[in-house]
């Protein structure tokens, strides 16, 4: 797929990947052998009929392909850009046994972009019917948008309560413009709204209204898709010096508050010349690449394991390296040193890998006497996130794990509190967009089953885990 040249894109916030044109999409769709058992669909968390939409592309029936795609996925423009297809649907592709798999994600993106160019606008089902049963969704990230869309299609009167002034959750505040343009996110939000879903912005549930008040006020079920927006820190000396950000704050300023367009948008953000990003996930890659685009001379990703253990997508690591991001493996901060209240140096330990931990990756261990100093004037800490405790603290009988994640049934999303479901990062901790969407679909199915049958849901099971580095 065509992309901007690395030297050029490293200094702008325009989208890196440029997408297929029609000829490229038709050629790629021709490669699909239309497997009868559709293993690719089995690898999709939201169950898209992948051979079906690819066959429609191959026959140049793009409107039909889009209908097939959107019947299961309300966010194709998002998923085609940021989902890890290489370890999901594409990993199951039969052609992978003989060579290159079908580029399912790129074809999904092509369709979404094609529809946007038609300027036909969202095509949903309109307003809910009078007397439709009311459901509240807390959070407008991928889990919340998905559960809302599925329930609206089933005829429910759905309202999303979003704490921020823009809908989209992590899609809006977390993922940079060069990877996921905000116009794409807004188009997907508009489509969900066109299904009859109302979106109440600036509505902080837990502060302005509680879950119990929603349940007492006419909503028959509540879904919690509040995400995991509480940053984790190193808890080492000097971490409170100026010039040290959490990745969440840094990316929120850059993405949601448009700091990259300063002074057109009057949002300040520290622009260092020698920037260190601590962590090895996709968020760390996003933060490092943003810092470079904001004018840093040198950006170094510091990760306590090796490149092999990094949880970030290979594509994003490769993009970062092409753009000039440096990587320092087997190292971790010991403390931060400063002058006049601003960070100037980072003292690090060298690390070595020991036995595997619970994640299956080898546990990093400090090498005695290995301390060394790095000169820095900005540090971005990207160690993962956990859920904001506001909802859990204001909702009696809602159980959480020691990590702060909500206890919910892994198959249905049902929490231990009556008439309350949850899914996405609020339950799992930091994970992928498509896994959150899958949780939303499962919860929508169970909410519909419960409201129609009135039967108690299945037994609950803890499904909360800690954040990953």
Question: Could you name the key traits of this structure?
Answer:
alpha/beta; 17 helices; 5-stranded parallel β-sheet; FAD/NAD(P)-binding domain; globular; Fumarate Reductase Iron-sulfur Protein, Chain B, domain 2; 3 domains; 469 residues
User: Which ranges are low-confidence, i.e. pLDDT below 50, for 5 or more consecutive residues?
Assistant: 460-469
Strand count: 16
**Total number of helices:** 17
Structural class, judged by helices and strands? alpha/beta
**How far is the N terminus from the C terminus?**
30 Å
Oligomerization status of the protein chains: single chain
What is the radius of gyration computed over CA atoms, rounded to a whole number of angstroms? 23 Å
What is the makeup of the main sheet?
5 strands, parallel
CATH homologous superfamily assignment of the largest domain: FAD/NAD(P)-binding domain
Task: Count up the domains.
Answer: 3
Helix content: 25-40%
Query: Overall mean pLDDT score?
Result: 92
Residue fraction in strands: 15-25%
CATH architecture of the largest domain: 3-Layer(bba) Sandwich
| CATH level-3 fold name of the largest domain | FAD/NAD(P)-binding domain
Query: How are the strands ordered across the major sheet?
Result: 3-2-1-4-16
CATH top-level class of the largest domain: Alpha Beta
């Amino acid at each position: 797929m065509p992309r901007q040249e690395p030297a050029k894109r490293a200094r702008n916030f325009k989208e890196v990947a440029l997408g297929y044109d029609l000829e490229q999409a038709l050629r790629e769709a021709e490669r699909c052998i239309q497997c009868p058992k559709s293993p690719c669909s089995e690898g999709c968390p939201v169950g898209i009929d992948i051979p079906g939409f690819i066959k429609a592309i191959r026959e140049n029936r793009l409107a039909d392909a889009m209908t097939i795609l959107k019947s299961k996925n309300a966010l194709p423009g998002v998923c085609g850009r940021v989902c890890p297809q290489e370890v999901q649907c594409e990993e199951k592709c039969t052609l992978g046994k003989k060579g290159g798999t079908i580029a399912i994600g790129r074809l999904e993106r092509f369709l979404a972009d094609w529809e946007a160019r038609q300027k036909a606008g969202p095509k949903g089902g309109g307003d809910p019917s009078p007397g439709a049963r009311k459901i509240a969704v807390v959070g407008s990230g991928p889990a919340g948008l998905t559960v809302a869309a599925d329930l609206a299609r089933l005829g429910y009167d759905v309202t999303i309560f979003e704490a921020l002034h823009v809908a989209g959750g992590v899609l809006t505040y977390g993922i940079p413009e060069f990877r996921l343009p905000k116009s794409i996110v807004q188009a997907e939000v508009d489509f969900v709204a066109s299904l009859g879903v109302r979106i109440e912005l600036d509505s902080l549930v837990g502060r302005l209204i509680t879950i119990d008040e929603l349940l007492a006020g006419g909503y028959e079920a509540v879904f919690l898709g509040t995400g995991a927006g509480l940053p984790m820190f190193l808890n080492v000396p000097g971490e409170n010096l100026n010039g040290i950000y959490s990745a969440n704050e840094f990316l929120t300023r850059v993405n949601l508050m448009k700091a990259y367009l300063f002074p057109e948008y009057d949002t300040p953000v520290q622009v260092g010349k020698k920037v260190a990003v601590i962590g090895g996930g996709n968020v760390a890659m996003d933060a490092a690449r943003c810092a470079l685009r904001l004018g840093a001379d040198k950006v170094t990703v510091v990760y306590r394991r090796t490149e092999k253990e990094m949880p970030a997508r290979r594509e994003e690591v490769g993009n970062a390296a092409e753009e000039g991001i440096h990587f320092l493996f087997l190292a971790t901060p010991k403390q931060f040193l400063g002058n006049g209240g601003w960070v100037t140096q980072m003292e690090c330990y060298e690390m070595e890998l020991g036995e595997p931990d619970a994640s299956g990756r080898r546990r990093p261990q400090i090498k005695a006497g290995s301390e060394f100093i790095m000169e820095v004037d900005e540090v971005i800490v990207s160690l993962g996130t956990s859920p904001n405790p506001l909802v859990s603290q204001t909702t009696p009988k809602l159980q959480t794990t020691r990590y702060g994640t909500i206890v919910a049934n892994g198959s249905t999303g049902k929490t231990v509190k009556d008439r309350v479901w949850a899914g996405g990062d609020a339950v799992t901790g930091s994970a992928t967009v498509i896994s959150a969407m899958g949780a939303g679909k499962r919860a929508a199915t169970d909410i519909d089953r419960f409201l129609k049958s009135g039967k108690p849901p299945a037994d609950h099971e803890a499904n909360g885990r800690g954040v990953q580095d």
